[in-house]
Design a protein that fits this description.
mainly alpha, two-stranded antiparallel sheet, signal, sensory transduction
């Protein structure tokens, strides 16, 4: 599918998806009076007053009643988002065109994963790295805080969005547990299959113990069916304690080594030497353009700098890459172009810190405008001040003035002293992009669940977990093939600790108010308990088997983990389709 197909898909979805209106639930006791523009079917009044009716019931009714059912049932209202996918599929498309609607939604779902991946990799993570550099954080602290946040941003934002609505909380639980099982079995087993290695013992035991504690805490929360303010803070506090433990273990390890004079122990992750770093950096595709650079640098005009900065294609790399890379790049170009226009990126590794004067001045206008137009699906940006002037107009006016002042007082050659502020602006703008994409992702998954009569939990443990973990899978396996399996194996367990503790803790904490300090997390089926048990069992298996093998991990260990995941997936799907029936006490 080329760029024209991508743009047409987004255009079709914009036309067929009904813009979300008031997503709030009406106060108790207020009758539902949907304006259906026609005669109400017999018995429909009683149906509309049944506030506990599940949205899944829509597929059990006559196709002529689908649209009225979705519009009148509060359970069919999607929280947040720019498009109402349920009304789009049941009101815009004719019943016989349902397969076409599902196909378009599936393609849009895949593209949302691309948006999440591109935003996190090329805009969110670099700005986090620049912030940690400006704050002068050590590599260990930055790795378990900012780097973990960057790598887990799609998972965390998806969990926060899903927890915002009790009807989609199962998505968050399924994604958190499902991604945990997937990463600790398929990804970890794949690393052992690609390159057998000796695991870093102390970091492995530390991470597995912390992760088992997090899983046990989540199991207790699910058992009681609620999470209190203290428990939500406990999640975040446990992660802070984990960061403290990493820093303390690193300090103790350095003291034992005599500040690096002793030879590395068997528990240390493999790190590239200076020669390897120089060799790998020399093979970087960007260095092929060195011979094309002029010997005497010339002063470029602002228009030329802006044009070059907004080009998402490297033509030298384009000619060397295979056709499938080019096809995927064509799909990413529209996303990258919009992100380049709205998200500044500060790169500490470059001499000019990636300072592009005309583009950065444009970011002073576009980034705040993006934030107000994506926050609460544009509700704040469209708000009329005193009923006269919209908020987005005020932001545009102030941003334009600041952009002009910055352009006049700076030069193209040297970044200003306050250039680090753009890293924080880029972090905020990319976070808003990820949050907006995650909101659409959760809503479209819930819509697919209604169409196919699937629970949110099974959608979370499959589509959402696979989509958010695919980037980690490729990066970890690539790292293992390049000769760093220890580092990749440590990333498997270290990253998901952040996703579970911060995703659940922050997601529930943001839903609490002064009058409601409890978030209900009632498991909707036996599948939740199978998920929790499978994740706990996989961690116990690795916790016992890895030390038993003297931390020598080979192909047998990898095969066992992958077979375990396949068996778990079969049990989960059989449970979802009611083949396995057990009563939960």
């Amino acid at each position: 599918m080329g760029p024209a197909g991508t743009l047409s898909l987004a255009g079709v979805l914009s036309l067929v998806g009904v813009l979300a209106g008031d997503n709030g639930v009406q106060p108790a006791g207020t009758p539902l009076t949907p304006d259906l523009g026609g005669t109400v079917a017999p018995g429909w009044d009683a149906l509309s007053h049944n506030r506990g009716l599940d949205c899944w019931e829509v597929r059990k009714r006559n196709s002529s009643e689908w649209c009225r059912f979705v519009r009148s049932n509060p359970d069919c209202r999607l929280e947040g988002g720019f498009l109402d996918y349920l009304q789009g599929v049941f009101c815009v498309f004719a019943p016989q065109l349902l397969p076409l609607a599902v196909t378009l939604y599936a393609l849009w779902l895949l593209y949302l994963f691309i948006i999440l991946g591109v935003t996190a990799e090329k805009f969110f993570c670099p700005n986090l790295s620049a912030i940690s550099t400006n704050l002068k954080l050590s590599h260990n602290v930055a790795g378990v805080t900012f780097l973990a946040f960057g790598n887990g941003a799609p998972d965390v934002f998806s969990a926060v969005v899903a927890f915002s609505n009790p009807r989609t909380a199962g998505l968050a639980v399924g994604a958190v547990f499902g991604a945990g099982v997937f990463v600790t079995t398929v990804v970890a087993g794949g690393i052992a299959l690609v390159k057998p290695f000796t695991a870093a013992s102390r970091p492995f035991l530390r991470d597995v113990i912390f992760y088992m504690v997090a899983v046990f805490l989540t199991f207790v929360v699910l058992y009681f069916g609620r999470i209190t303010l203290g428990e939500a803070l406990g999640y975040l506090g446990l992660y802070v304690f984990y960061v403290f433990t990493v820093v303390l273990c690193t300090w103790i390890h350095r003291r034992q080594r005599g500040e690096g004079l002793a030879p590395p122990g068997p528990w240390e992750p493999e790190m590239p030497t200076d020669a390897e770093e120089q060799e790998s950096s020399g093979a970087n595709s960007g260095d092929y353009g060195e011979e094309y650079r002029p010997l005497i640098p010339s002063r470029e005009t602002s228009l030329r700098i802006l044009t070059a900065a907004l080009s998402p294609l490297d033509y030298l790399k384009w000619r060397r890459k295979p056709w499938y890379w080019r096809l995927f790049k064509v799909l990413k170009v529209p996303v990258e172009l919009v992100l380049l226009l709205t998200v500044p990126v500060v790169d500490p590794d470059k001499d000019d810190l990636n300072w592009k004067r005309p583009l950065n001045c444009l970011h002073i206008l576009t980034s705040p405008l993006l934030c107000v137009l994506t926050l609460k699906s544009g509700a704040y940006g469209l708000y009329q001040i005193q009923g006269i002037f919209p908020v987005w107009g005020l932001v545009t006016l102030v941003g334009s003035i600041l952009a002009v002042i910055t352009f006049i007082t700076t030069s193209n050659e040297e970044p200003p002293k306050y250039h680090c502020v753009f890293a924080f602006l880029g972090f905020l703008a990319s976070a808003m992009w990820i949050n907006a994409a995650a909101t659409e992702l959760v809503n479209i998954l819930r819509t697919l669940g209604v169409i196919f009569q699937l629970s949110n939990t099974v959608l979370g443990l499959t589509l959402l977990a696979w989509g958010n973990s695919i980037g980690d899978t490729f990066s970890d396996l690539t790292m293992a093939r390049q000769g760093y399996p220890r580092m990749a194996f440590s990333a498997c367990f270290g990253g998901i600790i952040f996703n579970m503790l911060v995703g659940v803790g922050l997601g529930c904490l943001l839903q609490m108010t002064s009058s409601q300090l409890v978030v209900k997390l009632e498991p909707d089926s036996l599948l939740v308990w199978i998920l929790a048990g499978a994740l706990g069992l996989s961690l116990v298996f690795s916790f016992v088997s890895v030390p038993a093998q003297c931390f020598q991990l080979g192909k047998a260990y990898g095969f066992c983990l992958i077979l375990y995941y396949l068996a778990f997936l079969c049990v989960a799907l059989l449970t979802e389709f009611r083949v396995i029936r057990l009563s939960v006490i």
